[in-house]
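Hey, resending since the last one bounced:
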Amino acid sequence: MEINRVIERLASCSIIPFDADAQEISSVAIAAIQEKQEREKGCEFCSGNDWRDRKNIPLQGSHTQAEIVIDTDNSIYVSNMDDDISINTVEIKFCPMCGRKLSENNG
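The structure tokens again:
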């Protein structure tokens, strides 16, 4: 079932007005589903078909101009802008900035 349809169905469920627990449960469920829907869009650091479409994450406290790059093959690495090299490539499953699950299709 699509997320939008689940949200609509939960919002339209008739809840007895005096049942505060049921209303709270429904509200929390809707908020969680909406958060998941928003997270699936990705962020400026993990969305885009090509790594050049993505914003790099500035590395704080570095003596050089280094950035963290999330590549389209689900790897993350530190790129030293001064030397144009990458160090320690690691495969990741989730974007470290927004939490979106990265897959083979959405990088």
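The chain is about 30% helix and 20% strand.

Sorry for the duplicate.
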